[in-house]
Each structure stands twice: as structure tokens, then as C-alpha cells.
Amino acid sequence: DYRMQQYRVFSALALSYSIRWAAIFIRDYLKRVQTAINSGDLQAAEELPELHASLSGLKAWSTIIAHGHMEDLRKACGGQGFLMSSGMPAIVLNFCDPATVEGEQVIMSLQCSRFLIKSVTQLKNKHEVKGSVKYLLDAPITTLPFNSWPNATPENLVAMFRDRARRQAMRLEERFQASQKRGLSFTDATNETAIHGYKAASCHSAYITISRNLDALNEFVKPKDTNIYNALLNLFQLTALRQIKDDLADWFECLTPHLVDSLTDGIHVLLDNIRPDAVGLVDALGFEDEQLDSTLGRYDGRVYEAIYEQAKLSPLNQSPKMVGWESISKVLDLDFIKAGVGQRACVDSKL
């Protein structure tokens, strides 16, 4: 019920669902292309560049942002999050594997940026662009179709991410071409524009995640259960608004100060809406106690009892007196300490 903790925890929860929807999309996309190629459909091979770009971009973007949220959640647990018994350090450390094991993720994202450069170049040369980069055909958004958060539709939010991806891809290609016109090779031009490339790839991946999230809700959830749809729609909107809030400069061309304040108010509304469903949404992910191995994340809710039992297992707590007490007590003024304890004015912790 603490607002700042809600902001951190619910944002991570919402993002986990969004990434899961994107993972389902990319899994099905990969399976469809592989099946088509194996059956002799050579036309499906034309989708391989886009598939590779989407896989690279999503792999880099999702693991980097997810790992950041994991570490933030660990810190949100305070000192308990530092203890191995909480399970949080192990979760954060183990996720270093997907975030780094295939190589530095920022470099991996540049494979996506090369695809974006090629797609923009094809568009300028009057060639067809399709698939996830069809947004390159869109007109730029200079004025949003809503003036306050309550009037923003889910489709409006997707359109904002779509427009940002288009603008960043266009700017990347312009800078890349400018570098080559100065005589830089393809490799050197790619290196010089790597910062812009990483940004464009991240925006492209965020757009895929946001758009596929809403598509999945409308296609699979809404027709079956309105209540579940509304609960998951709150998560979708929080994911979108949190990213907009964190990257406000990306939308300075269409956001006004009033609208920024309104979108921030919308985050507060969503936190209140998510609160009644938060526990159920976490349990729905299906992680069992044995997997989490945590004193904090427990199905029975007996957190303090678990912390106490784990603390008793520490070698430092195996005797009534702390290790080394016999030596320390000889140099301490115990009467002075006892008098100070009796006079202290601070309030005891509720914990």
C-alpha cells in the first residue's frame, strides 16, 4: 500500500506481462517461418532479415530492462533484499546469464539497427517496406488526439510508440548516410552512429512489445473474460505510461506540460486499479516456493517467521552471546551503555 513501492513493484509486474506477450509473438513468428522454409516455401526466407532483427532487438531490450527492474526490486526490499535468504540476490545474479552470456547486449541490438537503416534506405529508394517497420510509411504525429489521460485510448498509446520508433529510425539512417558521405566505411559509420543505433533499436523493440501486448489482449483475452481483460489492460497501460514518463524527451514534439502532468496522474490511477488484483496477477505467473527459494516471496505469507527461522541458522546466532563477546566485553563500559539505552528517546521500530 506504500505508493513508491507500488510504483516500483507494479511497474515491474506490468513489464513482465508485456515481455511475456512479446515472447509468445516472437516464438510463434519463428515457428511459422521455420515451418514454411522446411516445407519448401522459399518466399518465407525473405522474412529472415526482419525475424533476425526482431529477435536481436527484443533479446537485448527485454533482458536489459528486465534486469534493471530486478535489481530495483531487490533494493526495494531494503536490507532483506541483500540477504541470500530472500532469494533476491540469486535471482538478480542468475539473470546475468541471459543478459550477457551471448555477448554484450548493446552490441547485439546493433543488428536490429542495421535492419532499420536498410529499411529506411529501401523506403527512400521507393522499395516496399512491410512487417514490423511499416510504421516508416506513417505521417509524423505532431498533435496527439487526446488532451488528458482519461481520454487516451490504448490505441493512442501504441500510436505514440509507433511514431517514436519511426522518428528514431529515420534519424539513425540520416546520421548513418551523413557519416558515409564523409568517407567513412560501413563499419566505421556503424560505429560512429552506434549510440543512435542502440536508441533506434530499443524504440523499435519497445514498440513491438507494446503493440503485441495490446493485440494479444484484444485477440485472446477480451473475447473470453472481461474482468481479466480489464486487469491486464491496466498492466498494459502502466507499462506504456511508465516508459513514456522515463523517456519524456522522446516525445517532446507532441507532448505538452499539461499532458505530461495528466499522464503522471494516470499512473497514480492505474496503481490504485492494479492494487486489488496485484497478488492474483503475481500468483498467475505460476512460480512456486521451491523455485523462488525465498523468505520474502512465499505462498503462505509467513514472511517474518521464515526470516526468523533463517536467521537462527546463521553461525553467528548459534550461541546466546555473539562471537567474540568475551574479548569485546572487557574493553566496553557496560554501565555507560546500559544508562544510554535507558535514556534514549528514539522510537522503537515496528519491525
Automatic annotation (TrEMBL):
Annotated keywords: FAD, Flavoprotein, Oxidoreductase
GO cellular component: peroxisome
InterPro entries recorded: ACOX_C_alpha1, Acyl-CoA_oxidase, Acyl-CoA_oxidase_C, AcylCo_DH-like_C
Signal peptide (residue range): none
Domain Acyl-CoA oxidase C-alpha1 stretches: 1-117
GO BP annotation list: fatty acid beta-oxidation using acyl-CoA oxidase; lipid homeostasis
Superkingdom field: Eukaryota
Annotated Gene3D superfamilies: Butyryl-CoA Dehydrogenase, subunit A, domain 3 (1.20.140.10)
Domain Acyl-CoA oxidase C-terminal: 154-330
Cofactor requirement: FAD
A Pfam family assignment: ACOX
Molecular function, one GO term: FAD binding
Similarity field: Belongs to the acyl-CoA oxidase family.
PANTHER family hit by this protein: ELECTRON TRANSPORT OXIDOREDUCTASE (PTHR10909), PEROXISOMAL ACYL-COENZYME A OXIDASE 1 (PTHR10909:SF250)
Protein name: Acyl-CoA oxidase C-terminal domain-containing protein
Annotated organism of origin: Aplanochytrium stocchinoi
